[in-house]
Amino acid sequence: MTTLVQHQHVETQIVESYVAEVYELVKKRNPNESEFHQAVKEVFDSLVPVLVENPKYMEHGILERMVEPERVISFQIPWIDDQGTVRVNRGFRVQFNSAIGPYKGGLRFHPSVNASIVKFLGFEQIFKNSLTGQPIGGGKGGSDFDPKGKSDREIMRFTQSFMSELSKYIGPDVDVPAGDIGVGAREIGYMFGQYKKIRGAYEAGVLTGKGLNYGGSLGRKEATGYGTVYFVEEMLRDSGRGFKGSTVVVSGSGNVSIYAIEKAHQLGAKVVACSDSSGYIYDEQGINLETVKRLKEVEGKRISEYVEEHPNAQYHSGCSGIWSIPCDIALPCATQNEIDEIAAKLLVSNGVIAVGEGANMPSTLEAISIFHEKKVLFGPAKAVNAGGVAVSALEMAQNSMRLSWTLDEVDTKLQEIMKNIYTNSINAANEYNAPGNLVVGANIAGFKKVADAMIAQGVI
Ligand code: NDP
After folding, report:
1. Fewer CB within 10 Å, N- or C-terminus of the chain?
2. Of the residues 21, 45, 67, which one is the last residue of a structural domain?
3. Which candidate in 104, 119, 128, 140 is catalytic?
4. Ligand 1 center to residue 251 CA distance, Å?
């Protein structure tokens, strides 16, 4: 396949059929992994003009190599619940690409986790990490363990068992996991303790999202949510708008959502709705974030309880209804494929002007097409939510230097990084004839750096 290409410029048609052929191979090799297929398709659709201009990427088999993880680890996690019953979950780590740095990406604990979910997240992570400008490769992991309703002791026993196996494959220069859905500071703490015990060494840089008193970075907790808002503010600036005075809807009420709401409020927006996996709240006067933080971060309660303290607000069960609320800016910050074609049409008909993906792949391919067609400003996840992993890389840097930066220093760096991601993505989109299309721009800008590093390092 690759030897076909020997000329400097190849016809678009040849490239298109090459890309389609590799995509078919992905589907054949990874049957029943629809989320992974979706993530690959979104990237591949952007790359045709880059391959036309740079046939070397085909000669070096870059696409074929990028879609095949360097290593996939799947393992058993046995643990004992509070009733003394032995339970078994499945753990994953996908080490996708290490061309520009050690594998880096979060761990997700959620019953929906399977090979497809971990592979889509790991694949996206390659490009996201490249966009941050930091030296980090792409990886992702997790387990089908459901943290809901588990006691603190059960969480500890489970995470220790998880790390007993994962510790064989990670290290500060090898693979550096972090949190994601269901994995926050508590879980990272237990995992770090277990890793330290197994290794007999204090390797602070092996995990990020650590507590501040043992190697964590100021600003990491806030980074993904704040970064999401910084990116969308850049997007809006180009059309003379901003968060100030806007009405915003944010889905989810976890780590990303809470700090996206906080920053949006700080910039003068009114966030009127947020959700959890059971339903959503609508508070016309603007959400009281202190209540949400206490309910979700401290007490681990359902978002429905918000209306007991704020009787003017409404609670509706089910997640998708949140997109029927009129807003200027929508920030999906919960999970994949939460905005489908119907939700996208509702948002458009209610006058949304910008959508920024705080979660990973929250919009279906059909929803993205609608946003593009209707000229809604659309920020794709791998650019918009890259602030989390960017500050994770800053945490690794501080761990290596054995010093800590102030919150202001970290936040200033985060703002610069988000600005650069926006500029690089918009420039790549313009250069490759897709003005304003940040999906294409982010994919291309993220891809080129990794692809060039892979070529430089040979076929290994
Ligand atoms: P959290 O576990 O902190 O919060 C997730 C939130 O989304 C919760 O409110 C949860 O509800 C809700 N949720 C989870 N699954 C579903 C579902 N199937 N349907 C509806 N709502 C759901 O996770 P994060 O905030 O860390 O992650 C959210 C998203 O952001 C994910 O896509 C993640 O991959 C992405 N992301 C996270 C980063 C980070 O630094 N944390 C970095 C980059 C991306 P409930 O409370 O009921 O569980």
Report:
1. C
2. 67
3. 140
4. 9
Name the H helices within 304-364: 306-309, 341-349
Pairwise CA distance, residues 444 & 46, whole Å: 7
Residue of 127, 258, 259, 277 to test ligand 1 pocket, by largest number of atoms within 8 Å of CB? 277
Distance 427 CA to ligand 1 centre (A): 30
Tokens of 344: 């996208």
Structural domain containing residue 14? 2-67
Q: Which atom of ligand 1 is nearest to the CA of 258?
A: 25
Please check the confidence at residue 340 and state whether its pLDDT lies above 50: yes
Q: Single out the residue in 384, 409, 440 at which a domain terminates.
A: 384
Hey, whose CA ends up nearest to atom 41 of ligand 1? 180
Report the share of the chain in percent with pLDDT over 70. Answer: 98
Centre of ligand 1 to C-alpha 250, Å, is: 12
Q: Are 348 and 276 found together in one domain? A: yes
296 Cα nearest atom in ligand 1: 46
State which ligand 1 atom lies nearest to the alpha carbon of 223.
40
pLDDT for the residue 11: 85
Same domain for 55 and 185, yes or no, is no
Q: Which residue among 114, 136, 256 has the greatest number of ligand 1 atoms within 8 angstroms of its CB, and so is best to mutate?
A: 256
Distances (CA, A) of 456 to 60, 99, 134, 442, 453: 10, 9, 18, 22, 5
> Rounded to two decimals, what is the model's pTM?
0.96
Question: What's the DSSP call for residue 363?
Answer: B
pLDDT tens digits, one per residue of 206-258? 999 999 999 999 999 999 999 999 999 999 998 899 999 999 999 999 999 99
Looking at the CA of residue 179, tell me the nearest atom of ligand 1.
41
- The residues facing 378 across adjacent strands are 355
In 81-179, which ranges are E strands?
86-97, 103-109, 137-143, 175-178
Active site residue 41: no
Per-residue pLDDT tens digits for 353-391:
999 999 999 999 999 999 999 999 999 999 999 999 999
List residues near ligand 1 (CB under 6 A): 179-182, 224, 252-257, 276-278, 319, 333-335, 358-360, 385, 388
At 4 the pLDDT is 45
Continuous H helices in 30-114: 34-53, 56-59, 62-66
